[in-house]
Design brief:
alpha+beta; Adenine-n6-DNA-methyltransferase TaqI, Chain A, domain 2; 2 domains; 5-stranded mixed β-sheet
Length: 418
Protein backbone atom coordinates (compact mmCIF):
# COMPACT_ATOMS: atom_id res chain seq x y z
CA UNK A 1 0.00 0.00 0.00
CA UNK A 2 1.08 3.60 -0.48
CA UNK A 3 2.95 5.05 2.44
CA UNK A 4 5.17 2.03 3.24
CA UNK A 5 8.19 4.03 2.09
CA UNK A 6 9.79 6.89 4.11
CA UNK A 7 7.91 10.18 3.80
CA UNK A 8 10.92 12.03 2.37
CA UNK A 9 10.71 9.93 -0.81
CA UNK A 10 7.43 11.67 -1.60
CA UNK A 11 8.88 15.17 -1.16
CA UNK A 12 11.71 15.55 -3.71
CA UNK A 13 13.65 18.80 -3.87
CA UNK A 14 12.67 21.49 -6.37
CA UNK A 15 13.80 25.09 -6.82
CA UNK A 16 10.93 26.44 -8.92
CA UNK A 17 9.22 28.35 -6.10
CA UNK A 18 5.84 26.92 -7.09
CA UNK A 19 3.16 25.34 -4.90
CA UNK A 20 3.71 21.57 -4.55
CA UNK A 21 0.99 19.41 -6.09
CA UNK A 22 0.39 15.66 -6.46
CA UNK A 23 2.06 14.05 -9.47
CA UNK A 24 -1.03 11.89 -10.00
CA UNK A 25 -3.16 14.88 -10.95
CA UNK A 26 -0.78 16.13 -13.64
CA UNK A 27 -1.48 13.30 -16.08
CA UNK A 28 -3.81 10.45 -16.94
CA UNK A 29 -2.31 7.08 -15.97
CA UNK A 30 -3.75 4.30 -18.13
CA UNK A 31 -2.85 0.79 -17.03
CA UNK A 32 -2.43 -1.92 -19.66
CA UNK A 33 -4.68 -4.96 -19.96
CA UNK A 34 -4.09 -8.44 -18.55
CA UNK A 35 -3.54 -10.27 -21.83
CA UNK A 36 -3.80 -13.83 -20.54
CA UNK A 37 -6.83 -15.81 -21.66
CA UNK A 38 -6.94 -14.56 -25.23
CA UNK A 39 -6.24 -16.18 -28.58
CA UNK A 40 -2.69 -15.19 -29.42
CA UNK A 41 -1.77 -15.40 -33.11
CA UNK A 42 1.38 -15.69 -35.19
CA UNK A 43 0.82 -12.24 -36.63
CA UNK A 44 -1.09 -9.14 -35.53
CA UNK A 45 0.06 -6.43 -33.16
CA UNK A 46 2.59 -7.32 -30.45
CA UNK A 47 1.62 -7.32 -26.77
CA UNK A 48 4.14 -5.15 -24.95
CA UNK A 49 5.48 -6.17 -21.55
CA UNK A 50 8.52 -4.84 -19.72
CA UNK A 51 10.72 -7.28 -21.68
CA UNK A 52 9.70 -5.66 -24.98
CA UNK A 53 10.25 -2.16 -23.62
CA UNK A 54 13.73 -3.01 -22.41
CA UNK A 55 14.90 -5.37 -25.13
CA UNK A 56 12.62 -5.06 -28.15
CA UNK A 57 10.61 -7.80 -29.83
CA UNK A 58 11.70 -11.44 -29.77
CA UNK A 59 10.37 -14.91 -30.51
CA UNK A 60 8.81 -14.84 -27.04
CA UNK A 61 6.71 -11.74 -27.82
CA UNK A 62 3.00 -12.52 -27.95
CA UNK A 63 0.83 -11.14 -30.77
CA UNK A 64 -2.89 -10.81 -31.33
CA UNK A 65 -5.34 -9.84 -34.07
CA UNK A 66 -7.91 -8.86 -31.43
CA UNK A 67 -9.35 -5.37 -31.07
CA UNK A 68 -9.20 -3.75 -27.64
CA UNK A 69 -9.67 -0.38 -25.97
CA UNK A 70 -7.79 2.22 -28.02
CA UNK A 71 -6.51 3.73 -24.79
CA UNK A 72 -4.12 0.77 -24.41
CA UNK A 73 -2.95 0.87 -28.03
CA UNK A 74 0.60 2.16 -28.22
CA UNK A 75 1.93 4.50 -30.87
CA UNK A 76 5.38 5.97 -31.36
CA UNK A 77 6.10 8.76 -28.91
CA UNK A 78 3.88 7.45 -26.11
CA UNK A 79 5.26 7.99 -22.61
CA UNK A 80 5.29 4.79 -20.52
CA UNK A 81 5.89 4.18 -16.83
CA UNK A 82 6.68 0.64 -15.70
CA UNK A 83 5.31 0.57 -12.17
CA UNK A 84 5.80 -3.06 -11.12
CA UNK A 85 8.82 -5.34 -11.25
CA UNK A 86 12.39 -5.61 -10.06
CA UNK A 87 13.19 -2.09 -8.72
CA UNK A 88 16.68 -1.75 -10.21
CA UNK A 89 15.88 -3.07 -13.69
CA UNK A 90 12.14 -2.71 -14.34
CA UNK A 91 10.74 0.37 -12.58
CA UNK A 92 11.17 3.38 -14.85
CA UNK A 93 10.04 5.80 -17.55
CA UNK A 94 10.39 5.13 -21.29
CA UNK A 95 9.31 6.57 -24.62
CA UNK A 96 7.79 3.99 -26.96
CA UNK A 97 9.32 3.95 -30.47
CA UNK A 98 8.60 0.52 -31.99
CA UNK A 99 5.30 1.10 -33.77
CA UNK A 100 1.70 0.20 -32.97
CA UNK A 101 1.21 -2.37 -30.20
CA UNK A 102 -1.03 -3.34 -27.29
CA UNK A 103 -0.01 -2.45 -23.74
CA UNK A 104 0.13 -5.20 -21.12
CA UNK A 105 -0.63 -4.72 -17.43
CA UNK A 106 1.91 -3.35 -14.91
CA UNK A 107 2.71 -0.47 -17.27
CA UNK A 108 1.02 2.93 -17.38
CA UNK A 109 0.51 4.83 -20.61
CA UNK A 110 1.00 8.38 -19.34
CA UNK A 111 -0.87 11.30 -20.90
CA UNK A 112 0.37 14.58 -19.37
CA UNK A 113 -2.14 17.41 -19.01
CA UNK A 114 -2.30 19.60 -22.10
CA UNK A 115 -1.02 22.54 -20.07
CA UNK A 116 2.30 20.73 -19.44
CA UNK A 117 5.20 20.43 -21.89
CA UNK A 118 5.44 16.70 -22.70
CA UNK A 119 9.23 16.72 -22.87
CA UNK A 120 9.43 18.48 -19.50
CA UNK A 121 7.11 15.89 -17.97
CA UNK A 122 9.34 13.08 -19.23
CA UNK A 123 12.40 14.72 -17.65
CA UNK A 124 10.40 15.25 -14.46
CA UNK A 125 9.70 11.50 -14.37
CA UNK A 126 13.37 10.72 -15.00
CA UNK A 127 14.34 13.06 -12.16
CA UNK A 128 12.00 11.14 -9.86
CA UNK A 129 13.45 7.76 -10.92
CA UNK A 130 15.55 7.22 -7.74
CA UNK A 131 12.47 7.97 -5.62
CA UNK A 132 10.34 5.53 -7.59
CA UNK A 133 12.96 2.79 -7.28
CA UNK A 134 13.33 3.29 -3.54
CA UNK A 135 9.56 3.32 -3.03
CA UNK A 136 9.33 0.04 -4.93
CA UNK A 137 12.26 -1.39 -2.99
CA UNK A 138 10.54 -0.60 0.31
CA UNK A 139 7.52 -2.64 -0.81
CA UNK A 140 9.49 -5.40 -2.49
CA UNK A 141 8.30 -9.00 -2.09
CA UNK A 142 9.73 -12.09 -3.86
CA UNK A 143 11.99 -9.82 -5.91
CA UNK A 144 9.17 -7.54 -7.14
CA UNK A 145 8.28 -4.03 -6.04
CA UNK A 146 5.68 -1.57 -7.23
CA UNK A 147 4.71 2.10 -7.41
CA UNK A 148 0.93 2.49 -7.23
CA UNK A 149 -1.41 5.33 -8.06
CA UNK A 150 -1.56 5.87 -4.32
CA UNK A 151 2.17 6.55 -4.36
CA UNK A 152 1.77 8.92 -7.31
CA UNK A 153 -0.90 10.76 -5.36
CA UNK A 154 1.50 11.23 -2.46
CA UNK A 155 4.41 12.34 -4.65
CA UNK A 156 4.49 16.15 -4.39
CA UNK A 157 6.14 18.05 -7.25
CA UNK A 158 6.50 21.63 -8.44
CA UNK A 159 5.75 22.95 -11.93
CA UNK A 160 7.36 26.11 -13.29
CA UNK A 161 5.62 28.25 -15.91
CA UNK A 162 5.09 26.73 -19.35
CA UNK A 163 7.81 28.93 -20.87
CA UNK A 164 10.24 27.80 -18.17
CA UNK A 165 9.23 24.17 -18.78
CA UNK A 166 10.07 24.60 -22.47
CA UNK A 167 13.43 26.23 -21.68
CA UNK A 168 14.36 23.44 -19.27
CA UNK A 169 13.21 20.77 -21.73
CA UNK A 170 15.32 22.27 -24.52
CA UNK A 171 18.41 22.32 -22.29
CA UNK A 172 17.88 18.78 -20.99
CA UNK A 173 17.11 17.40 -24.44
CA UNK A 174 20.52 18.56 -25.68
CA UNK A 175 22.12 16.81 -22.68
CA UNK A 176 20.02 13.68 -23.28
CA UNK A 177 21.05 13.58 -26.95
CA UNK A 178 24.72 13.72 -25.97
CA UNK A 179 24.23 10.94 -23.38
CA UNK A 180 22.55 8.75 -26.00
CA UNK A 181 25.37 9.44 -28.47
CA UNK A 182 27.94 8.48 -25.82
CA UNK A 183 26.03 5.28 -25.07
CA UNK A 184 25.94 4.37 -28.77
CA UNK A 185 29.68 4.96 -29.08
CA UNK A 186 30.31 2.84 -25.97
CA UNK A 187 28.15 0.01 -27.36
CA UNK A 188 30.09 0.09 -30.63
CA UNK A 189 33.43 -0.14 -28.83
CA UNK A 190 32.20 -3.09 -26.75
CA UNK A 191 30.80 -4.86 -29.82
CA UNK A 192 34.15 -4.48 -31.62
CA UNK A 193 36.06 -5.85 -28.61
CA UNK A 194 33.78 -8.87 -28.29
CA UNK A 195 33.94 -9.53 -32.03
CA UNK A 196 37.74 -9.48 -31.89
CA UNK A 197 37.75 -11.96 -28.98
CA UNK A 198 35.43 -14.29 -30.88
CA UNK A 199 37.60 -14.13 -33.99
CA UNK A 200 40.87 -14.76 -32.16
CA UNK A 201 39.90 -17.06 -29.29
CA UNK A 202 36.73 -18.88 -30.39
CA UNK A 203 36.79 -19.19 -34.19
CA UNK A 204 40.63 -19.03 -34.33
CA UNK A 205 40.35 -17.09 -37.60
CA UNK A 206 44.02 -15.99 -37.82
CA UNK A 207 45.25 -19.55 -37.22
CA UNK A 208 42.90 -21.00 -39.86
CA UNK A 209 44.02 -18.33 -42.32
CA UNK A 210 47.73 -19.06 -41.78
CA UNK A 211 47.16 -22.83 -41.93
CA UNK A 212 45.42 -22.40 -45.29
CA UNK A 213 47.95 -19.94 -46.66
CA UNK A 214 45.51 -17.02 -46.63
CA UNK A 215 46.02 -13.42 -45.50
CA UNK A 216 44.92 -12.97 -41.88
CA UNK A 217 43.85 -9.38 -42.47
CA UNK A 218 45.99 -8.36 -39.49
CA UNK A 219 49.14 -6.20 -39.38
CA UNK A 220 52.19 -8.34 -40.12
CA UNK A 221 53.61 -8.06 -36.59
CA UNK A 222 50.28 -9.14 -35.06
CA UNK A 223 49.75 -11.99 -37.54
CA UNK A 224 53.23 -13.31 -36.71
CA UNK A 225 52.12 -13.92 -33.11
CA UNK A 226 49.65 -16.64 -34.13
CA UNK A 227 50.66 -20.26 -34.83
CA UNK A 228 49.98 -21.69 -38.28
CA UNK A 229 48.69 -25.08 -37.13
CA UNK A 230 46.52 -26.84 -34.56
CA UNK A 231 47.45 -29.40 -31.95
CA UNK A 232 45.83 -32.79 -31.42
CA UNK A 233 43.38 -31.19 -28.96
CA UNK A 234 42.00 -28.92 -31.69
CA UNK A 235 43.47 -25.78 -30.16
CA UNK A 236 46.02 -23.53 -31.82
CA UNK A 237 49.45 -25.04 -31.29
CA UNK A 238 50.91 -23.96 -27.96
CA UNK A 239 47.53 -23.03 -26.44
CA UNK A 240 45.86 -25.16 -23.77
CA UNK A 241 42.70 -25.81 -21.80
CA UNK A 242 42.93 -24.51 -18.23
CA UNK A 243 40.36 -23.38 -15.65
CA UNK A 244 39.07 -20.02 -14.46
CA UNK A 245 40.57 -20.59 -11.03
CA UNK A 246 44.02 -21.40 -12.42
CA UNK A 247 44.11 -18.26 -14.56
CA UNK A 248 42.41 -15.77 -12.20
CA UNK A 249 42.07 -15.18 -8.49
CA UNK A 250 38.32 -15.42 -7.88
CA UNK A 251 37.57 -13.25 -4.86
CA UNK A 252 34.36 -13.29 -2.81
CA UNK A 253 33.05 -10.72 -0.35
CA UNK A 254 30.47 -10.31 2.37
CA UNK A 255 28.16 -7.78 4.02
CA UNK A 256 29.20 -6.35 7.37
CA UNK A 257 26.25 -6.06 9.75
CA UNK A 258 23.93 -3.30 8.61
CA UNK A 259 22.83 -2.92 12.24
CA UNK A 260 26.27 -1.63 13.17
CA UNK A 261 26.46 2.00 12.06
CA UNK A 262 30.19 2.12 12.80
CA UNK A 263 30.80 -0.21 9.84
CA UNK A 264 29.40 2.18 7.26
CA UNK A 265 29.78 5.52 5.49
CA UNK A 266 33.55 5.65 5.37
CA UNK A 267 36.19 5.96 2.64
CA UNK A 268 36.01 2.41 1.23
CA UNK A 269 33.68 1.87 -1.76
CA UNK A 270 31.58 -1.30 -1.36
CA UNK A 271 29.89 -2.82 -4.42
CA UNK A 272 26.81 -5.03 -4.78
CA UNK A 273 24.95 -6.36 -7.83
CA UNK A 274 22.54 -3.45 -7.38
CA UNK A 275 25.36 -1.04 -8.24
CA UNK A 276 25.94 -2.94 -11.49
CA UNK A 277 22.30 -3.31 -12.51
CA UNK A 278 21.70 0.15 -13.91
CA UNK A 279 25.01 0.67 -15.71
CA UNK A 280 24.82 1.77 -19.34
CA UNK A 281 28.37 0.53 -19.95
CA UNK A 282 30.95 -1.89 -18.50
CA UNK A 283 32.52 0.51 -16.00
CA UNK A 284 31.55 0.92 -12.34
CA UNK A 285 32.53 4.44 -11.33
CA UNK A 286 30.64 4.75 -8.02
CA UNK A 287 28.80 2.66 -5.41
CA UNK A 288 25.72 3.43 -3.34
CA UNK A 289 27.36 2.48 -0.06
CA UNK A 290 30.80 2.68 1.51
CA UNK A 291 32.55 1.05 4.45
CA UNK A 292 34.29 2.63 7.41
CA UNK A 293 37.70 1.43 8.53
CA UNK A 294 35.98 -1.02 10.91
CA UNK A 295 33.65 -2.29 8.16
CA UNK A 296 36.52 -2.68 5.74
CA UNK A 297 38.50 -4.77 8.22
CA UNK A 298 35.73 -7.39 8.43
CA UNK A 299 34.89 -7.42 4.71
CA UNK A 300 36.38 -10.68 3.40
CA UNK A 301 37.16 -9.36 -0.08
CA UNK A 302 39.61 -6.71 1.08
CA UNK A 303 40.16 -4.13 -1.67
CA UNK A 304 39.68 -5.44 -5.19
CA UNK A 305 42.35 -3.84 -7.42
CA UNK A 306 41.20 -1.20 -9.88
CA UNK A 307 40.04 -2.53 -13.28
CA UNK A 308 39.41 -6.05 -12.06
CA UNK A 309 36.30 -7.71 -13.49
CA UNK A 310 33.23 -7.90 -11.26
CA UNK A 311 30.52 -10.44 -12.10
CA UNK A 312 27.25 -10.77 -10.21
CA UNK A 313 27.09 -14.39 -9.08
CA UNK A 314 23.45 -14.35 -7.98
CA UNK A 315 20.17 -12.43 -8.20
CA UNK A 316 20.86 -12.38 -11.12
CA UNK A 317 23.92 -14.16 -12.47
CA UNK A 318 25.74 -12.25 -15.16
CA UNK A 319 26.10 -8.50 -14.59
CA UNK A 320 29.63 -7.55 -15.68
CA UNK A 321 31.63 -4.43 -14.89
CA UNK A 322 35.18 -3.25 -14.36
CA UNK A 323 35.69 -1.32 -11.14
CA UNK A 324 37.16 2.03 -12.15
CA UNK A 325 38.39 2.44 -8.56
CA UNK A 326 39.39 -0.04 -5.82
CA UNK A 327 36.31 -1.56 -4.17
CA UNK A 328 35.24 -4.09 -1.61
CA UNK A 329 32.38 -6.41 -2.61
CA UNK A 330 29.48 -8.27 -1.07
CA UNK A 331 28.64 -11.97 -1.37
CA UNK A 332 26.67 -11.45 -4.58
CA UNK A 333 29.77 -10.65 -6.64
CA UNK A 334 32.70 -12.74 -7.85
CA UNK A 335 35.76 -10.69 -8.75
CA UNK A 336 38.19 -11.85 -11.45
CA UNK A 337 41.55 -10.53 -10.25
CA UNK A 338 44.54 -10.84 -12.58
CA UNK A 339 46.81 -13.82 -12.05
CA UNK A 340 47.93 -15.46 -15.32
CA UNK A 341 45.55 -13.53 -17.62
CA UNK A 342 44.10 -10.03 -17.75
CA UNK A 343 40.57 -9.16 -16.58
CA UNK A 344 40.06 -7.75 -20.10
CA UNK A 345 40.31 -11.31 -21.38
CA UNK A 346 37.90 -12.44 -18.64
CA UNK A 347 35.34 -9.78 -19.63
CA UNK A 348 35.18 -10.90 -23.26
CA UNK A 349 35.31 -14.58 -22.23
CA UNK A 350 32.37 -14.13 -19.84
CA UNK A 351 30.28 -12.49 -22.55
CA UNK A 352 31.05 -15.32 -24.94
CA UNK A 353 30.45 -18.07 -22.36
CA UNK A 354 27.66 -16.64 -20.19
CA UNK A 355 25.39 -19.53 -21.14
CA UNK A 356 27.95 -21.94 -19.66
CA UNK A 357 28.30 -19.84 -16.51
CA UNK A 358 24.53 -19.74 -16.00
CA UNK A 359 24.22 -23.47 -16.70
CA UNK A 360 26.50 -24.06 -13.71
CA UNK A 361 24.28 -21.98 -11.40
CA UNK A 362 21.65 -23.51 -9.14
CA UNK A 363 19.36 -22.62 -6.25
CA UNK A 364 15.73 -22.90 -5.21
CA UNK A 365 15.11 -19.25 -4.30
CA UNK A 366 17.35 -17.69 -6.94
CA UNK A 367 20.07 -18.93 -9.26
CA UNK A 368 23.61 -18.63 -7.96
CA UNK A 369 26.98 -19.86 -9.16
CA UNK A 370 29.32 -20.60 -6.27
CA UNK A 371 32.86 -19.27 -6.42
CA UNK A 372 34.16 -22.84 -6.20
CA UNK A 373 32.15 -23.96 -9.21
CA UNK A 374 33.17 -20.85 -11.13
CA UNK A 375 36.84 -21.60 -10.48
CA UNK A 376 36.39 -25.08 -12.03
CA UNK A 377 34.91 -23.89 -15.33
CA UNK A 378 37.18 -24.63 -18.32
CA UNK A 379 38.89 -21.69 -20.03
CA UNK A 380 41.31 -21.53 -22.96
CA UNK A 381 44.74 -20.13 -22.17
CA UNK A 382 46.25 -18.62 -25.32
CA UNK A 383 49.91 -17.91 -25.86
CA UNK A 384 51.26 -15.00 -23.85
CA UNK A 385 52.08 -12.98 -26.96
CA UNK A 386 48.58 -13.24 -28.46
CA UNK A 387 46.97 -12.55 -25.08
CA UNK A 388 49.11 -9.45 -24.58
CA UNK A 389 48.30 -8.16 -28.07
CA UNK A 390 44.59 -8.53 -27.34
CA UNK A 391 44.97 -6.76 -23.98
CA UNK A 392 46.79 -3.83 -25.58
CA UNK A 393 43.87 -3.33 -27.97
CA UNK A 394 41.39 -3.62 -25.10
CA UNK A 395 43.27 -1.05 -23.01
CA UNK A 396 42.94 1.49 -25.80
CA UNK A 397 39.21 0.76 -26.23
CA UNK A 398 38.52 0.92 -22.51
CA UNK A 399 40.42 4.16 -22.14
CA UNK A 400 37.86 5.62 -24.56
CA UNK A 401 35.05 3.90 -22.65
CA UNK A 402 36.22 5.38 -19.35
CA UNK A 403 36.28 8.86 -20.88
CA UNK A 404 32.75 8.36 -22.24
CA UNK A 405 31.53 7.04 -18.88
CA UNK A 406 32.98 9.99 -16.98
CA UNK A 407 31.50 12.47 -19.45
CA UNK A 408 28.11 10.74 -19.33
CA UNK A 409 28.09 10.74 -15.52
CA UNK A 410 28.86 14.47 -15.49
CA UNK A 411 26.01 15.08 -17.93
CA UNK A 412 23.59 13.07 -15.79
CA UNK A 413 24.40 15.27 -12.80
CA UNK A 414 23.02 18.25 -14.72
CA UNK A 415 19.53 17.17 -13.75
CA UNK A 416 16.21 18.93 -13.59
CA UNK A 417 16.94 21.08 -10.56
CA UNK A 418 20.61 21.86 -11.19
Amino acid sequence: MAGDAPAELYAPAFNFGAEPQPLLGLAEWINGLAFKNIAFTDDGLPVVKIAEIKGGFSDATKRTNGIYDDRVRLRDGDLLFCWSGQPETSIGTFVWDRGDAWLNQHIFRVLPDQSIDRRFFRFLMLYLQPNFQEIARNKQTTGLGHVTKGDLGMMMVQLPSLSEQERIANTLQAIQDKIELNNQMAETLQHMARALFKSWFVAFDPVHAKAEGRDTGLPADTAALFPSSFGDDGLPKGWRISTVGELFSIVAGNTPSTKQAEYWDGPYAWATPKDMSGLSGPLLTKTDRSLSEHGFQICSSGRIPEMSLLMSSRAPVGYLAFNAMPVSINQGIAAFVEKALSPFYAWAWCHENMNIIKANANGSTFQEISKGVLRSVAMIQPSTSVHDAFVDIMKTSFSHLLHLAEETEALKRRHLCS
